[in-house]
Every structure is written in structure tokens, then in C-alpha cells.
Specification:
about 190 residues; mainly beta; 11-stranded mixed β-barrel; 1 helix
Length: about 190
């Protein structure tokens, strides 16, 4: 079920609510296989509105964000995230900041029109604004150097995402690995 929020949330207004999707496709380097593998998955996402948050003269409206993804036939999620989606109307920026329980965090952002139904956010290793941080093990074994996600709100009320995480993987000598994920999320019925 989507939540009704006002124009203060800008392009994030359409994302408020509880969502699920079972068309997920994850393409990543499989450590056991030693090669790229494709994993279908299902996920649930909760985006709860809050705001405004005042940082001096800056006023942000946001969505408290929680997601979990499961491989089909498994009970434990193989991926989870906690974080925030934020809208800064004065700058015209959408930001997504999140943590994964592998010891990694990032904040991605981009310029977005208030009424946009599709937008792209990016983070780069070394950036002091929209950047990526990893624990020492990940920095050595699978260093994330870039992240990009495109969100598209569909006319039927669903939304889709397509994201690419670029990783310098110590077990791949042919160059950076493009770890991709995509899914279509629909409002949870009766939530």
C-alpha cells in the first residue's frame, strides 16, 4: 500500500509505502563459482515518510528505508539494506544513503526535478559528497568504486529500479565487475 504524502517530498512522494517484487535479477561475481552468476530474487521494501529535518537553513523531507531480498526457495535474506531517501527541494537533489551488513555504506545523489517520474543517482569512491565507504576486507577483496541507480515510477503505480555497482574484485583479473540488480516493486496489498 502506498502512503499519501504531500508535494514536500518532491519525486519521492510516489515511493512512500510498502512494496514487494518477485522479478528481481541479480548478476554478480559468485565466490563459490569463481565466475559471474545470475540469481533471481524477491524482495520487500518499506519507505516511511518523515520530515522536515532542518540542517540550519536546509530542510529535507525523507523516507525511512528498509529492504530485504531472498533467493527463491530460501528463508533467510541474502541481502538487506537500511537507510534513507532524502529530498532537498532548494538544491533539487534526491539522496539515497544506506548501509549493508557487510560493512559498507554509501550516499548516492543527483539533481532531480520535483515532478520527475524517472531519475538517476550516483556515488563514487573518494567523493566527499556522494561517496562510498567499505571495511578493510571489502576494500581489499571486492572494492566498490562506483554505484548508480535509476528509479522509474510506472503509470500503473509500480516502480522499477536498475542499479549497477562497479567492483574491483581481487579474483577477477579482466577488469572491474559490473554487479547489477533490477526489479519491479508493487504496493503490498492491504498493508
Amino acid at each position: 500500500m502506498t502512503e499519501k504524502v504531500g508535494p514536500e517530498w518532491g519525486p519521492l512522494a510516489a515511493l512512500a509505502g510498502e512494496w514487494e517484487g518477485d522479478q528481481g535479477v541479480d548478476v554478480a561475481f559468485g565466490n563459490v563459482e569463481g565466475s559471474m552468476i545470475t540469481t533471481p530474487y524477491r524482495e520487500k521494501v518499506t519507505l516511511k515518510p518523515f520530515g522536515p529535518v532542518a540542517n540550519g537553513t536546509q530542510h529535507l523531507y525523507g523516507l525511512d528505508y528498509k529492504m530485504a531480498a531472498w533467493r527463491f526457495g530460501e528463508e533467510a535474506p541474502f541481502h538487506t539494506e537500511l537507510g534513507y531517501w532524502l529530498w532537498d527541494a532548494e538544491l533539487g537533489h534526491v539522496m539515497r544513503s544506506f548501509l549493508v551488513p557487510r560493512g559498507q555504506t554509501l550516499i548516492a545523489g543527483g539533481v532531480v526535478a520535483p515532478d520527475a517520474t524517472s531519475f538517476t543517482l550516483r556515488a563514487d569512491l573518494g567523493s566527499t559528497t556522494y561517496g562510498i565507504l567499505s571495511n578493510p576486507y571489502l576494500a581489499r577483496a571486492a572494492n566498490t568504486t562506483a554505484y548508480e541507480v535509476t528509479i522509474t515510477v510506472n503509470p500503473d503505480g509500480s516502480f522499477a529500479y536498475d542499479e549497477t555497482t562497479t567492483i574491483d574484485h581481487s579474483r577477477v583479473s579482466s577488469g572491474p565487475v559490473a554487479h547489477t540488480d533490477r526489479n519491479i516493486l508493487r504496493p503490498l496489498p492491504g498493508a
